[in-house]
């Protein structure tokens, strides 16, 4: 009976009695208390603010140039993309910083842009306009063959736009670091003939995938 009482006393001892209970058992008790309190605080904050994931939609696009030069396989591109970013949270405002957008074709990056940082209040939908223009080499015959195939099938190309951003959360007057955001927008874009004044074809709104890490 005395052995059991001594064991319980050693596990439940407070830091002030470490000299009597043992350093390791006291350290374990303190760490356990910290984890329990942190878990309770996180649960209370979650139940209080009910955070929701942001929603991102591609609402407009204009692919005025998307051509591949023969033999050299240089891709010339001019893409304008309009996104709508919605913050559905009622108590959490968001600050996006370090925003980077990349455009990919056949798994290869061909365009890059860095839009300015922006702040998004609670329940607000913000526009995010991206522009990619320039030239980039396409590596490998498979990618070039994929381009020729899509060019022959109505000049509708599969372009993937990926956006990453760091995020800060504003809760009342408090600002805390948030997760890194990754947005993936797989698009089907029809190239228009800008040289002949052709208007941009109708674009079907596309929902983007949002993940945090």
From TrEMBL:
<keyword id="KW-0812">Transmembrane</keyword>
<dbReference type="InterPro" id="IPR004864">
    <property type="entry name" value="LEA_2"/>
</dbReference>
<dbReference type="InterPro" id="IPR044839">
    <property type="entry name" value="NDR1-like"/>
</dbReference>
<dbReference type="Pfam" id="PF03168">
    <property type="entry name" value="LEA_2"/>
</dbReference>
<dbReference type="GO" id="GO:0098542">
    <property type="term" value="P:defense response to other organism"/>
</dbReference>
<dbReference type="GO" id="GO:0005886">
    <property type="term" value="C:plasma membrane"/>
</dbReference>
<protein>
    <recommendedName>
        <fullName>Late embryogenesis abundant protein LEA-2 subgroup domain-containing protein</fullName>
    </recommendedName>
</protein>
<feature type="domain" description="Late embryogenesis abundant protein LEA-2 subgroup">
    <location>
        <begin position="83"/>
        <end position="137"/>
    </location>
</feature>
<dbReference type="GO" id="GO:0009506">
    <property type="term" value="C:plasmodesma"/>
</dbReference>
<keyword id="KW-0472">Membrane</keyword>
<feature type="transmembrane region" description="Helical">
    <location>
        <begin position="28"/>
        <end position="49"/>
    </location>
</feature>
<keyword id="KW-1133">Transmembrane helix</keyword>
């Amino acid at each position: 009976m005395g052995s059991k009482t001594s064991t319980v006393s050693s596990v439940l001892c407070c830091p002030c009695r470490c000299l009597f209970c043992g350093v390791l058992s006291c350290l374990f008790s303190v760490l356990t208390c910290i984890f329990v309190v942190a878990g309770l605080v996180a649960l209370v904050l979650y139940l209080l603010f009910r955070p929701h994931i942001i929603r991102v939609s591609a609402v407009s696009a204009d692919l005025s140039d998307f051509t591949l030069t023969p033999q050299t396989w240089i891709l010339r591109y001019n893409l304008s993309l309009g996104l709508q970013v919605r913050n559905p949270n009622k108590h959490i405002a968001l600050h996006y910083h370090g925003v980077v957008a990349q455009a990919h074709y056949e798994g290869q990056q061909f365009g890059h842009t860095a839009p300015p940082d922006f702040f998004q209040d609670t329940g607000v939908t913000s526009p995010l306009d991206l522009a990619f223009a320039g030239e980039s080499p396409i590596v490998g015959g498979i990618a070039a063959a994929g381009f020729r195939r899509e060019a022959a099938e109505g000049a509708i190309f599969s372009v993937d736009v990926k956006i990453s951003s760091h995020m800060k959360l504003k809760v009342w007057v408090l600002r805390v670091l948030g997760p890194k955001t990754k947005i993936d927008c797989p698009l089907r874009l029809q190239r228009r003939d800008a040289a002949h004044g052709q208007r941009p074809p109708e674009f079907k709104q596309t929902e983007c995938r949002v993940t945090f890490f």
